[in-house]
Design a protein that fits this description.
The protein folds into two domains: 179 residues, NADP-dependent oxidoreductase domain (TIM Barrel), CATH 3.20.20; 99 residues, no CATH class. It is 39% helix and 12% strand. It is built from twelve helices and ten strands. The protein has an eight-stranded parallel beta sheet, with helices on one face. Helix 3 runs parallel beside helix 4 and helix 9 packs across helix 10. The chain is globular.
């Protein structure tokens, strides 16, 4: 495994981040097996992945509990545990959002579920229109000052909002967001025209979610063929939204390059993303040992500039995506 620094911080993270949304029982495509989930996390740690990303809303805390169980015997000093706050965690009026109350309450709840004294990276999962960003940043800054959190991050918002948050931190002397978690893959490149420029200019790390576009870039879906039952595309309109002529052309290029370098399409898609200057660590979401090892091998895969260009060429980044 290779390692890099998270943005302008001194924190070293593996070039792949293990996404933990699959560890739970809320959706049919999740692992639905606690022991197998713990085993997969252990295998990721054995492969050198030290960066794990979850969220309080993933199976309403179940994912965090599984991660906590899995890392109980690991070297905590070398682990980078990331989780998120924003989504609904109950039916009450203060059970979601980024108010000071919800942020602080959920930080304590996440610490309990993860069974740890501190969270390495605490991220706002979405922007909250109902709460002043100053209130949210003040709460996050308090968590840093009291040692409950080491770094803070954000996910999925407009460049204007993210810039506003960064500059508010500068003006008010609050802790700054160290990283951004956007959707980014060879077929979802709209953030090149939105968040990525901000991240590059402000020294912010980038940990893309859905780097394989919900499985689209693995090559398991084909044009003019209905997805098989049990796949994410069969259950998710968001995955089927990738089924466009432009994206099939990207997949065709990915598969051609995979044949040339004796790799799988998934490995090539991840290697392409690792070649992007802004990217720190794509968030992978394997559900099997085979998928985990396949993804991990992408770190040592070198693509030529020509191969990178062929995968890049079919898409024209636009924000918002047309």
């Amino acid at each position: 495994m290779a390692y890099t620094r998270l943005g302008d911080t001194g924190l070293e993270v593996s070039r792949l981040c293990l996404g933990c949304m699959n560890f739970g029982s809320e959706r049919p495509w999740m692992m639905n097996d606690r022991d197998a989930s713990v085993d997969l996390i252990h295998e990721a740690l054995d492969l050198g992945i030290n960066f794990l990303d979850t969220a309080n809303v993933y199976s309403t805390g179940e994912s965090e509990e599984i991660v906590g169980d899995a890392v109980a015997s690991a070297d905590r000093d070398e682990l980078v545990l990331a989780t998120k706050v924003y989504g609904d965690m109950g039916d009450g009026p203060n059970a979601s959002g980024l108010s000071r109350k919800h942020v602080l309450d959920q930080a304590e709840a996440s610490l309990d579920r993860l069974d740890t004294d501190y969270i390495d990276l605490y991220q706002i999962h979405r922007w909250d229109d109902e709460t002043p960003i100053e209130e949210t940043l003040s709460a996050l800054d308090y968590l840093i000052e009291t040692g409950r959190v080491r770094y803070i991050g954000a996910s999925t918002m407009t460049a204007y909002r993210f810039t506003k948050a960064l500059y508010t931190s500068d003006i008010e002397d609050y802790e700054r967001f160290a990283c951004m978690q956007p959707e980014y893959s060879a077929v979802a490149r709209y953030e090149e025209e939105n968040l990525l420029e901000v991240c590059a200019g402000e020294g912010v790390g980038v940990i893309p979610w859905s780097p394989l576009a919900g499985g689209f870039l693995t090559g398991k879906y084909r044009p003019e063929t209905e997805p098989d039952e049990g796949t994410r595309a069969a259950a998710s309109e968001s995955v089927r939204s990738y089924f466009t002529e432009e994206n099939w052309a990207v997949l065709e290029a990915v598969e051609a390059v995979a044949s040339e370098v004796d790799a799988t399409p998934a490995q090539v898609a991840l290697a392409w993303l690792l070649e992007r200057d802004a990217v720190t660590a794509p968030i992978i979401g394997p559900r099997t040992s085979e998928h985990l090892r396949e993804n991990a091998a992408a770190v040592s895969l070198d693509l030529s500039p020509g191969q990178v260009a062929r995968i890049t060429e079919p898409k024209t980044p636009r924000y918002p995506e047309a």
